[in-house]
Each structure stands twice: as structure tokens, then as C-alpha cells.
């Protein structure tokens, strides 16, 4: 008896059946926002690459959520490192019904955006390090890195005890990040027995610091701390050397970059910078992460990529444990999360959403390259 189906019709029916068998659960969407254009775009790109690698690996694993294979999708937005734009972007992501937020990057954008996400009940894991972020009392805020409260305490102590600097001048760029870190360093310097001989201010758009540095030179500091970005600390270090200031420049993780070295040029040597976390080669699975990152993106990971990668996996793991991408279901799992990651064997959050493990590394530029000076790892009280 001849089949009632023609060959084309039969093939179409078989294809439809195969497609039906391969249907995924509805996409699980993670919102991401960071500076993807402008002078800070290298930070945003590094962070985005770490997130992308995590989501691609999760999709290859075929994770089941509520009985169906999950597909994790990154919905990216450029917040231009601008607080007002960040709030607009945050509302856009909420309106797109994302299931969680991985970002923002800057403290100054993260803090106002976090209020939008909290009102929507969306868990947010951000790179932002200003203490204000997790001090707001929201149960939706979590970190990818050690906070500036923890980092500043370590840096201030290092300046006084290791650099033997009793007189310290401080400059910050008036951003939530720069001012917040500088405030914490000032507290720590005083606690360690040092004296703040000058406190100056600039902006994250400035490139001429001659008058500020001239004022500081008159105070004869033993060290100068700058809270701000590499786009400013690079030219600042060149001008510092040109003015004959012998005091070493110390800064935070935004300065610990290849961009700083390029901008500072021959003046870069002797600069110190702190970085929340430990060097990639000393991370729990840093070497393996670096190999996979380089295979995917054809370049070495920057400072923030491994922390973004772990942040994404923290959210994915919480969703997997809850067997649900509903924020109300997986938020409690995220708050109680304990897992081994690329950056640490002991990833867990305290009641505020800060990482329980405190790790800070100090680097120095020697012969045009960042070299590790000291790493400090401890547990939060």
C-alpha cells in the first residue's frame, strides 16, 4: 500500500518532530550594563567577555530547569559610565523582563541603578566596590569583588607600614568609586599612625593636574594616593614626575591596568596599585580560566573577567539549585550560596551581599610591567 504522505511531506513531518524534541525552556535572560563605549569601554568589554564565557559554558552543559533545558542569554546595554544613563538602562532591562542583573561596573552607576532593580525584585551581582552599594539594606545586592571598605583598609595600612609613609596626600575624582575608596584609605592611614597632609579633588574627565600636584608638593608628602581611573592616573603620574615629586603614587584597581602603563609611559615605574582579589595565576582555577578565555577571545583576560565569570556562575548555580529562574525562588539560594569558582574556593556572601572572603593584592610597576608585591587574604568578621 502506498503511503498517504509524499516524500517531502514526510521529511517535513520528521523535521518538525525533531524540532519539537529539541525545544528549550523559555530563555533565561540576564541583564548586563557597563561602559561599552568611551574611555572606560575596556573595563566593560573585559567584564562582558567573562560573563559571555560563563553563559556559553552553561548552555553547553545543558542545565535542566523545571525539567527543560535552559538557555541562558545575556542582554547587554551601554550605561556609558553615566549615572543618569544607568538608571534609564536599568528600567529598560526591567521592562525586558530579565531574570537577574550582572552589572553594573562603576559604583556611581550601580548604586542608582540598584534602586530600580530592588523595586523590581531582581537579584543583582555587580562589580561595584563602593561600600554604599551593599549598605543600602537591599536583599537583592551582591558583589563580584571585595568591597572598597575592605580594600581601603588594606591599602592604608600598606602605605604606612610597608612604604613607611607618615605624611600622605590624597586625591580623588569625586565619583562614588574614587571618593569612596579614598575615604577608606584616609581612615586606614590615620588608624595606622599616618597623617593626611593634603586632600585634593578632581574629576573623571580631567587630564591636567599641575595645580593640584603643585599644592601637594608644598606639603612634602611621603606618598600620594589617588582614587580614580587609569585615564586620569596615567597622565597624573607623568605630571608628578615632571614636577619633581619623589613620593610614590598609590592607587586602586582601576589604575592596575595596561592602559595606565601606556598613558604614564616611562613615568609608570614605581607606581603602586591595589586590586581586590588575588593574581590570576594564584586564583583557585585561574590558569584553567585563562586558557579557556584566550581560546574563546584570542587575548588574555583583564582584571575583571574572572570575577564577572564567577558572578555569572553564582547566579546560574542559584537558579539551578532553586530549579527556577523566578527571582523570588532563587534569591534565597543566592544569599546562602557556597561554591568553588575560578577566583576562589570559598565563594559565599554575608548578610549584606558582600563576599565573606577578603582578598587584596598590591602591585608595583617595574620595568613597565605590573608585578605582585603582596597578597592579603582573610575572612570578614
UniProtKB/TrEMBL annotation:
Pfam families, per the entry: Peripla_BP_6
Domain Leucine-binding protein: 28-366
Organism domain of life: Bacteria
Signal sequence interval, chain numbering: 1-25
Keywords assigned: Signal
Entry similarity comment: Belongs to the leucine-binding protein family.
Record protein name field: Probable amino acid ABC transporter
Organism this protein belongs to: Bordetella petrii (strain ATCC BAA-461 / DSM 12804 / CCUG 43448 / CIP 107267 / Se-1111R)
Amino acid at each position: 500500500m502506498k503511503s498517504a504522505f509524499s516524500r517531502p511531506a514526510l521529511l517535513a513531518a520528521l523535521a518538525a518532530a525533531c524540532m519539537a524534541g529539541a525545544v528549550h525552556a523559555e530563555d533565561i535572560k540576564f541583564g548586563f550594563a557597563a561602559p561599552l563605549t568611551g574611555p572606560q569601554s575596556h573595563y566593560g568589554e573585559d567584564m562582558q567577555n567573562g560573563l559571555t564565557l560563563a553563559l556559553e559554558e552553561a548552555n553547553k552543559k545543558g542545565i535542566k530547569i523545571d525539567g527543560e533545558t535552559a538557555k541562558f542569554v545575556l542582554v547587554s546595554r551601554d550605561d556609558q559610565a553615566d549615572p543618569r544613563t544607568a538608571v534609564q538602562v536599568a528600567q529598560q532591562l526591567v521592562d525586558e523582563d530579565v531574570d537577574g542583573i550582572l552589572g553594573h561596573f562603576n559604583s556611581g552607576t550601580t548604586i542608582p541603578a540598584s534602586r530600580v532593580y530592588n523595586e523590581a525584585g531582581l537579584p543583582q551581582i555587580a562589580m561595584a566596590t563602593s561600600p554604599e552599594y551593599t549598605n543600602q539594606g537591599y536583599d537583592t545586592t551582591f558583589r563580584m569583588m571585595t568591597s572598597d571598605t575592605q580594600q581601603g583598609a588594606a591599602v592604608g595600612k600598606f602605605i604606612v607600614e610597608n612604604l613607611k609613609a607618615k605624611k600622605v596626600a590624597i586625591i580623588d575624582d569625586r565619583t562614588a568609586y574614587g571618593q569612596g575608596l579614598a575615604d577608606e584609605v584616609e581612615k586606614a592611614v590615620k588608624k595606622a599612625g599616618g597623617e593626611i597632609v593634603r586632600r585634593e579633588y578632581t574629576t573623571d574627565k580631567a587630564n591636567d593636574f599641575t595645580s593640584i600636584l603643585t599644592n601637594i608638593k608644598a606639603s612634602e608628602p611621603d606618598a600620594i594616593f589617588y582614587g580614580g581611573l587609569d585615564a586620569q592616573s596615567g597622565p597624573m603620574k607623568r605630571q608628578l614626575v615632571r614636577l619633581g615629586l619623589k613620593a610614590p603614587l598609590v592607587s586602586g584597581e582601576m589604575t592596575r591596568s595596561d592602559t595606565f602603563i601606556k598613558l604614564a609611559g616611562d613615568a609608570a615605574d614605581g607606581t603602586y596599585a591595589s586590586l581586590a582579589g588575588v593574581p590570576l595565576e594564584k586564583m583557585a582555577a585561574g590558569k584553567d580560566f585563562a586558557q579557556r578565555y584566550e581560546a574563546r577571545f584570542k587575548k588574555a583576560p583583564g582584571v575583571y573577567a574572572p570575577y564577572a565569570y564567577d558572578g555569572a556562575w553564582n547566579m546560574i548555580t542559584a537558579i539551578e539549585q532553586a530549579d527556577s529562574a523566578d527571582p523570588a525562588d532563587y534569591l534565597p539560594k543566592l544569599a546562602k550560596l557556597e561554591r568553588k569558582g575560578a577566583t576562589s574556593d570559598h565563594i559565599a556572601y554575608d548578610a549584606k551581599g558582600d563576599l565573606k572572603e577578603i582578598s587584596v593584592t598590591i602591585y608595583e610597576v617595574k620595568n613597565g610591567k605590573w608585578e605582585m608585591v603582596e597578597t592579603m587574604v582573610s575572612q570578614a568578621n
